[in-house]
Amino acid sequence: MSITTTSNLPAPILQSLAPGMLSVPTPNFNYIIPAEKYSMPRQGGTTMRFLRPVPLQPPVTQLGNTGIEPPSQVATREIIDSAMAFYGTSVILNEQVIIQDQDPVLSWVTERLGVAMRQAEDIILRDFLLSSASVYNCRGGVNGDSPTELTVRDLSAVASALDTANAFKFLSGKQGEDRFGTSPIRSAYFFLTSTEMQPTFDAMDKFTSSWNYPNQNDVIYSEYGAVLNFRIFTSSESAVQRAASAINGADVFNNMAIARESYAHIDQDGYSSQLLYRPPIFSGPLALNGTLGVKFAQAQVILQETWLRNVRCTLGS
Amino acid sequence: MTEYNKIAEGYFTSTGVAKFISLPFLPDTFEIWNLTEWGTNTNHLVKSAIGFQNSAAGTAYTTISNGTANNNVTITSGGFTFIQAGTYQYGPTIALATTFVTQANPAVVTTASAHGLATGDAVLLYGTTSMLQISGQVYTVTVLSTTTFSIPVNSSGFASAATAGFMKKVLYPDLYVPYGVNITAVSTGTTTTITTAVNHGFVVGQEVFFVLPQVSSTAWGMNQLDTFAFNTANVVPQQAYVTSVPAANQIVVNVNSTGFTAFAFPTSAQAALGITFPQVLGIGDQNSGATNAVTPLPFVPPAITIPGAFYANTRQGVLIGVGDGTTIVQATSDVIRWRAIYPDVIFTS
Q1: What residues have CB less than 8 Å from B102, skipping those under 6 apart?
Q2: Which candidate in B11, B14, B46, B154 could, as Cys together with B330 as Cys, close a disulfide (CB 3.0–4.6 Å)?
Q3: Rounded distance, CA A131 to CA A137, Å?
Q4: Same domain for A198 and A147?
Q5: A166 and A141 in one domain?
Q6: Which residue of B has its CA nearest to A142?
Q7: How far is B70 from chain A (nearest CA, A)?
């Protein structure tokens, strides 16, 4: 008896297209999260101007009974400007791709352009903070490098510096609840760090995983946990200087300790994201190529320079 | 040619150092013509050169003179480097000589092999045994010889010279300004003069603030200048304006520092425990001074008249080297014409 198999009776086509595209590794975009969001109006010029009053000296001296008035103070304000910039990228697709490809190319290219745009937004903010924030080098660790590994002592010092600068915290804390394995969470600043730093936090005795919060309200995907007055957000795209520490030439991690209103992200009305599709009909005498593009306008600015620290550290030995 | 091709052209007069051409696209092909040398037969001087994005950094295919006729030479360093820069990039690590940082003003650094630097380059020093107080910081250098350069630090009062260590060039230092604008000296008086480790990029009128982390009562000192120190001297946080820029690594600010604690480096032993360098940073929109270091300016909005508006310094383009030491791509006063090309498509077969 002979059996007919795929060896002697192959299918006309020995391939099937798996439904759906495979996922694309994409970092967490954390730097946009704690930014104050502003929008410049259309026809609003090139620059958004922020004004910040300068504190007046408190009048702590008695007026006395001389009848002579003390000199008055001059009220001044800081002027902080941020100029809008425009960014964009595109993909050119030959019409035959669109006509012949069995995959919805336009759909996934649109998706990738959207992700690329938001990734650019985050990288620009990251590099901006890196170039603008004042630095705190960790020194509480024992790895013999400078900066040392991140420790509770360092985080406490940074929180103290932010508190001393009268910075605003983002979140008012989480009260303890009657749930096994959970603990209350302090009111918190944001701490944006690298996924490579997660083992450091896991080994920290003051660390509370986000899964050990009393509840999961307002916990987002990239939140790793909390230490003292910081809630930790990790991303594979944080700022790392490879082989740059002072003593051992180790990788230096630039972690951002951020208070509310410390920096702003500004978009332009109607220009926060634009998806542009030009069908091939616009491309030339033979209408061969279509284009897909994205554009966006973005500005960023430090609003409170003392409410933001770049906490630099290495990894533990 | 179709609508997607891109060509940019330009020219400049060489100053004898590497030249960055900032472009609105990353080209596939880059070529230059040395108009000054075109009709001459000067030995080793490049008349024209071409480079491709997929070649190794520093590679250029050149036509040079051998003194009597033209010759074709491929160089693998000092040619063209195609750059998209937004993150930290360093040159190779170079070990330093046995005793490499002197106790002097300014401190002189000696490398074990040729450093390949030019005056104005930025260098990260690290692992500086016995002189750790300068370690982990980026400095703008003044080249003294092929193996020595000075840094803007007065190390004459340090306990000992450094006896080991490493350096590496920071490839695009203006990307990170004002980050890394650390303070190396402060002169007190009715106004205050601040010397910085790297060229600061600040402009007159820029508002600044200060970070002077206290290592001990004497190390760094001058806590009266620290914006973060809310002491009796600073009921209002310490901020100031730049009133003049005497040098690329110096500013004068309107702070009357008469009577302030003296600025002083920590000891090497204190630095071994980890230190934060004192910093001066701009307030508000901080990076315009830095961006001005790049010519031509990329993506500059028109008519910015207020100092300090921030732009993303991330940029792209081509770095034209000066040659590999034998073949000279550009020499001082040479007029260089360049062309950058981004084609529609590159056929590979």
Answers
A1: B108, B155, B161
A2: B14
A3: 15
A4: yes
A5: yes
A6: B273
A7: 42
